[in-house]
Amino acid sequence: MPVYSKEVMDHFMNPRNVGVIEDADGVGEVGNPVCGDMMTFYIKVRDGVLEDVKYQTFGCGAAIAVSSMISELAKGKKIEEALQITNKVVAEALGGLPQNKMHCSNLGADALRKAIEDYQIRQSSEKPLEKKKKEAVSAANEHSHEEEECLCPYCDSALAEVIPYCKTCGHSLKVCPECGTFQPQEAKFCFQCGTKL
């Protein structure tokens, strides 16, 4: 059973900023088909600053805590600053997460990023700033592959080889071309960096 920090338990028991912004300037929704977690983030922007951030989360305690922490970290930040909120930043702010719950911080960071991209699309006919997205992804993964082993997204077994399936549980896998992490075969986007697969 996962051991959670005091920060995780606090945000799980007393989640901040839960709800819906009816006239949101941007909405981002993500889900993990493996664990069933779903997150939707809503943002209200004024003069390039996230004036309000709310969310709805269906999932485990870690998913709720991650959503709550991200809303706190993002609220009042400029868009450029909010895009720098990565899975590592969230996990560190929560005092750490068990390895098998790290995907929750990935989902939360992805949901916030998608809400910001939705806002940018609404504001302009031009595509969102891909450069800033790639910078945020790069910051999130700068050292992750050197420090952490690759794990199967189904059973968390260590994957030593680049093969299209997990030797432990037999599930089919694919590798994200952007960040190189293993992803479920049916995934439509990378849970680590948000790249479309």
User: And the CATH topology of the largest domain?
Assistant: Sufe protein. Chain: A
CATH architecture of the largest domain: Alpha-Beta Complex
Span of the ends, CA to CA: 32 Å
* Number of domain modules: 2
Helical content (DSSP H or I, runs of 4+): 25-40%
Widest sheet: strand ordering: 1-2-3
Order of helices and strands: HEEEHHHHHHEE
Query: Averaged pLDDT, please?
Result: 79
Structure class: alpha+beta
Relative strand content: 15-25%
Q: Please tally the β strands and state the result.
A: 5
Weakly predicted, low-confidence segments: 143-148
Shape: globular
How is the main sheet built?
3 strands, antiparallel
Radius of gyration equals 16 Å
- In the CATH scheme, the class of the largest domain would be Alpha Beta
- How many helix segments? 7
Secondary-structure blueprint:
Layout: H1 6-13, E1 26-31, E2 38-46, E3 49-58, H2 61-74, H3 79-82, H4 87-93, H5 102-123, H6 130-141, H7 144-147, E4 173-175, E5 182-184
Antiparallel strand pairs: 1-2, 2-3, 4-5
Helix pairs in contact: 1-2, 2-5, 4-5
Describe the structure.
Strands 1-2-3 form a three-stranded antiparallel β-sheet. The chain is an alpha+beta fold. The chain has two domains: 137 residues, Sufe protein. Chain: A, CATH 3.90.1010; 49 residues, no CATH class. The protein is globular and about 50 Å long. Helix content is 36%, strand content 16%.
Brief summary:
This protein has 197 residues and is α+β, with helices and mostly antiparallel strands. Helix content is 36%, strand content 16%. The chain has seven helices and five strands.
